[in-house]
Specification:
By secondary structure, this protein is an alpha/beta fold. Helices cover about 50% and strands about 20% of the residues. Strands 3, 4, 5, 6, 7, 8, 9, 10 and 11 form a 9-stranded mixed beta sheet that branches. A two-stranded antiparallel sheet has the order 1-2.
């Protein structure tokens, strides 16, 4: 659009994003310490320059238009990059400070991430981390939009606009409480597992699809879960207090705090192995704080890999 760089100011992006978040010009103005007339004039000038409305006004607030949604999407990315640039200069001036916005999946949240944060606390105590748990299907759009710095967990099939770095290969396994009727059985048949009660991730996740393929590949209907959840805390207590089964990362059981309460169920069919790693928006300038976290993630993952290799050689 001609002349875009001449009128697109930092405050325009901030205002549009704030209006979308608050659903009101008045509330957005208050959040930005502007008067409502000033905010309304800024928005009016912006819409004139864009030759179209960003928001439709009503008595109940505002409703974003398609043009507005696209402008806000780009605005979030630009504001995130500006924030990272500011962090870079601040870090050079004052040392290891900064804030990281991190998305994580169940596969990484029980051991890899906590151990890494302990390491980071020792080396960069001024860094703070904001953690969002979810599935790849929910976290990746936020990563691409610039709302998250990195996503940690099972690498996603979503590769457009995303760079991925594998840290280690992980195996999925079926877990239940110690004392579960299947706990001491060898090679539990899939027919028996299909009749069990399950806690599973949502249907749109890759983990759910991998699990269901175990049964579909041998002509069985996949179990219908009693609970669909990716909450570590809820799933843990449900597994410990019932005979429900779940599908977890093997490292969660072997390296995490639940190995005394939960056990791996020996299923008759293996579950596919997948890489655990880091996803970041392609071409994104990460803050020094986020880069420091990635360094510690690599170190923790190497320790996990070395320990697994040592255990394997010890069994040979």
């Amino acid at each position: 659009m001609p002349g875009f760089e001449q009128w697109a100011k930092f405050r325009h992006f901030r205002l549009a994003v704030a209006i979308e978040e608050h659903g009101s010009i008045l509330h957005a103005a208050n959040a930005l310490n502007l008067s409502q007339p000033t905010a309304s004039k800024l928005l009016q000038d912006l819409e004139v320059s864009l030759n179209g409305p960003l928001f439709i006004r009503s008595n109940r607030g505002v409703e974003i238009t398609e043009l507005g949604r696209e402008f806000v999407r780009h605005g979030r990315v630009i504001l995130a990059q500006l924030s990272h640039t500011a962090q870079s200069f601040d870090a050079l001036a004052s040392g290891a400070d900064g804030r990281i916005f991190l998305g994580t999946l169940l596969t990484a949240a029980t051991y890899l991430l906590p151990q890494t944060l302990i390491r980071l606390r020792k080396t960069r105590p001024g860094i703070s981390v904001s953690i969002v748990e979810g599935t790849n299907e929910r976290l990746m759009p936020r990563l691409i939009a610039g709302e998250l710095d990195i996503v940690l967990g099972r690498l996603s099939d979503i590769r457009n606009d995303v760079d991925q770095e594998a840290l280690y290969d992980d195996e999925l396994c079926i877990v239940g409480r110690r004392g579960h009727p299947f706990a001491n059985q060898k090679q539990v048949p899939l027919e028996d597992l299909a009749k069990a009660e399950w806690i599973l991730p949502p249907p749109e996740t890759a983990l759910r699809r991998q699990f269901e393929s175990l049964f579909h590949d041998v002509g069985l209907n996949a179990p219908r879960p009693i609970v669909e959840s990716v909450s570590i805390l809820s799933n843990r207590f449900l597994l410990m207090g019932t005979d429900m089964l779940g599908v977890w990362s093997r490292t969660v059981i072997e390296d995490g705090p639940d190995r005394e309460d939960l056990t791996v169920i020996d299923a008759a069919a293996p579950i596919s192995v997948g890489p655990i790693g880091i996803s970041r928006r392609r071409g994104a300038l990460l803050s020094p704080a986020a880069e420091a976290l990635i360094v510690e993630l690599r170190a923790t993952a190497k320790e996990m890999t070395d320990r697994s290799a040592s255990q394997l050689w010890g069994e040979v």
